[in-house]
Amino acid sequence: MQSLTVSELLSQNIVIPEVEIKGWVRTFRANRFIAINDGSTINNIQCVVDFENFDEALLKRITTGAAIHIKGELVESQGKGQKVEIQVQELIVLGDSDPETFPIQPKKHSFEFLREHAHLRTRTTTFSAIMRLRSALSFAIHKYFNDNGFYYMHTPIITGSDAEGAGEMFKVTNLDTKNPPLNEEGNVDYSKDFFGKETNLTVSGQLEAETYAMSLGKVYTFGPTFRAENSNTSRHLAEFWMIEPEVAFMDLPGNMDLAEDFMKSVIKYVLDNNREDLEFLDKRLKDEEKTKPQAERSDMSLIEKLNFVTDNHFKRVSYTEAIDILRNCKPNKKKKFKYLINEWGTDLQSEHERFLVEKHFKCPVILFDYPANIKAFYMRLNDDGKTVRAMDILFPGIGEIIGGAQREERLDVLKERMAAINIPEEELWWYLDLRKFGTAIHSGFGLGFERLVMFATGMSNIRDVIPFPRTPQNAEF
Ligand code: 4AD
Ligand code: MG
């Protein structure tokens, strides 16, 4: 008896007299055709029962969602739609699924409904495809870095520093919140806390990754990241995964080359290896687009968008050029933007980023050399004294997908910038040490993994590309 996955069974060209399969029932039609899925592929295997030979009570238990074990013969299919099917000889129900209460029925469910049933939503074709793609993208990322001589570094999740200086952190403490120890000034005395200091969940592994770049040369992190920003948007999570490469002796143009090559490579990987899932999601998106007004429809299908990224050069544009374009563009002049662009120095909102990518350049864009005061303290100051060597990569439908920079490697300049925004030197003494001992130029970037998964699956809400999303007011499961 050969025990194969659905994926393996469907690729057989020969009749196999004895096979067995375990999986979950997707549908049971005409008291004869059971469609079984085991997660190994988007496709189901059709199992044909001669109901005359089976107990009626047993057949009643073949309901959507039930776990079953089937033994039979793999034969060429009589019907259309599949090459092979299983002629059932023995049927065992492993776990029943009450059709009255099982929430995932073979009909269209809204994404909102499925989010509330996130523990069961991967029983649907759409979510199983998304999560297989998520897994493949994750593998492609590790493969890319491994193939290119990078070391994988595990940066701490609990940290005492605020890497982005944005103050959007979740506190980590085991003090009694009702009755915390107080110091003489009446503030909470964190020296009595578990770590003897104030600690948070990390917002980025970058600062620690820099320490390893300055010894191992090329490193990357891929880990969970936490941000307590109260933005309830379709692109923000409170817990997300970030990939952060960091490379010694690499300048900003080198950083752009790396990011572009990396993005193309991981997208190409799924185009080559996850075709069936992508084709399904491509069709899903086309159907969704049809429900939108003509003006809001995308002119490219999902697979066309992915090919577009792998085949086209990312357009490199300075912040200053971008501001000129935005200031003079139609939606700005006609006051169609929610935030109007009036002057150099304003931060870009996602509506501006998407205008540049989708309407103006119509390709992925790398914006660089941003005003220093809208970017983090660690970015290298340009000779003009007002811009920094930052880069953001903007993707169609997503906006910012990557944020990165060449780092400030000069001790005096870094100290000045930290002082200007009140970051105490004691807090980052080890980071300053890198500039004292063998400093060199270095660069890196951070890719928001879920934003990449959104792009690769064509999903428009970030909550639908991570198994159990954490957002304001929501940490179920
Ligand atoms: O632009 P960010 O804040 O950059 C950093 O954290 C740098 N330390 C990275 C580096 O240079 N090593 O974040 C990087 C990316 C963003 O471009 C975005 O894709 C994603 O992380 N991101 C989020 N994704 C989901 N939910 C959120 N709340 C996110 N915040 C940032
Ligand atoms: Mg950013």
Reconstruct the topology from this structure.
Elements: E1 2-3, H1 6-10, E2 16-29, E3 33-37, E4 45-48, H2 56-60, E5 67-76, E6 84-95, H3 111-116, H4 125-147, E7 151-152, E8 158-159, E9 171-172, E10 199-201, H5 206-216, E11 218-226, E12 239-248, H6 252-273, H7 275-290, H8 302-311, E13 315-318, H9 319-327, H10 330-333, H11 350-361, E14 365-371, E15 387-395, E16 399-406, H12 411-420, H13 429-436, E17 442-448, H14 449-457
Parallel strand pairs: 1-2, 4-6, 7-11, 13-14
Antiparallel strand pairs: 2-3, 2-5, 3-4, 5-6, 8-10, 9-10, 11-12, 12-17, 14-15, 15-16, 16-17
Helix pairs in contact: 4-6, 4-7, 4-14, 6-8
This protein binds 4-amino-1,4-dioxobutan-2-aminium adenosine-5'-monophosphate and magnesium ion.
What does this structure look like?
InterPro entries: Aa-tRNA-synt_II, aa-tRNA-synth_II, aa-tRNA-synth_II/BPL/LPL, Asn-tRNA-ligase, Asp/Asn-tRNA-synth_IIb, NA-bd_OB-fold, NA-bd_OB_tRNA. It catalyses: tRNA(Asn) + L-asparagine + ATP = L-asparaginyl-tRNA(Asn) + AMP + diphosphate + H(+). Helix content is 31%, strand content 23%. The two termini are 38 Å apart. The chain is of the alpha+beta class and 477 residues long. It has helices spanning 6-10, 56-60, 111-116, 125-147, 206-216, 252-273, 275-290, 302-311, 319-327, 330-333, 350-361, 411-420, 429-436, 449-457, and strands at 2-3, 16-29, 33-37, 45-48, 67-76, 84-95, 151-152, 158-159, 171-172, 199-201, 218-226, 239-248, 315-318, 365-371, 387-395, 399-406, 442-448. The mean pLDDT is 96. α4 crosses α7, α4 (125-147) crosses α14 and α6 packs across α8 (302-311). It is built from 14 helices and 17 strands. The strands form three sheets. The chain has an eight-stranded mixed β-sheet, sandwiched between helices. A five-stranded mixed barrel has the order 2-3-4-6-5.
